[in-house]
Design a protein that fits this description.
Shape: elongated
Helix content: 55-70%
Structural class: mainly alpha
Length: 53
């Protein structure tokens, strides 16, 4: 499930709007690359959140 800016507050608090947009970009790219490498989506979701944080 790719993330949107509205999802960020549930993952990390206190970011500015520009930081939220950057978080979304980082998380979605990390998730896409992880899935492309052959790992399962559930693992990649957690991985992407850790990378973005």
């Amino acid at each position: 499930m790719p993330w949107a800016v509205s999802d960020v507050e549930g993952k990390i608090k206190g970011l500015s709007p520009s930081q939220k947009a950057r978080w979304v970009g980082i998380a979605n790219n990390a998730r896409k690359d992880c899935i492309k490498s052959g790992k399962i989506e559930k693992y990649c979701d957690g991985y992407a959140i850790r990378i973005a944080n």
